[in-house]
Backbone:
């Protein structure tokens, strides 16, 4: 399974447009080579370099396995989004307070749809993923504080 973005290469800077200094929408993501038997996909975007520990920016689950382009502004029907670490449902853009932070986009291929309600926090999603991950892919981008 592969995860990439047409807006930044792996381990490279995420364009300002997709940060709190820009429009602040999530960068588009390209999904490829989904394994056979995948029923749904899940995405977790987080910053392990945050001052108070790993910071959740976006969680999305029950993404159809036929999805090849994931865009915040055009999510497939039926997907669920969770509560991020600022307490809102949906995406919160990178805004590192200092230094360079790494933003991990973790994609999971699952053997079932997840019975997790819209707005659920990350621990609920993590619990539902256990035992149902067929494959995973990761894309890492960076943002440096201004």
Residues:
């Amino acid at each position: 399974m592969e995860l990439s973005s047409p807006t930044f290469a792996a381990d490279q800077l995420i364009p300002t447009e997709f940060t709190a200094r820009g429009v602040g929408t999530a960068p588009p993501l390209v999904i490829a080579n989904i394994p056979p038997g995948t029923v749904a996909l899940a995405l977790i975007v987080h910053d392990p370099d945050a001052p108070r520990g790993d910071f959740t920016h976006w969680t999305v689950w029950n993404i159809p396995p036929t999805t090849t382009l994931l865009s915040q502004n055009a999510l497939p029907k039926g997907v669920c989004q969770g509560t991020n670490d600022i307490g809102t449902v949906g995406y919160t853009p990178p805004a590192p307070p200092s230094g360079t932070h790494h933003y991990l986009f973790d994609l999971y291929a699952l053997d079932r749809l997840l019975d997790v309600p819209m707005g659920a926090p990350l621990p609920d999603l993590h619990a539902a993923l256990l035992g149902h991950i067929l494959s995973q892919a990761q894309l890492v981008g960076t943002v440096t504080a201004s």
Remarks:
- Residues 2-144 form a domain with the Phosphatidylethanolamine-binding Protein fold (CATH 3.90.280.10).
- The chain has a mean pLDDT of 96.
- The two ends are 34 Å apart (CA to CA).
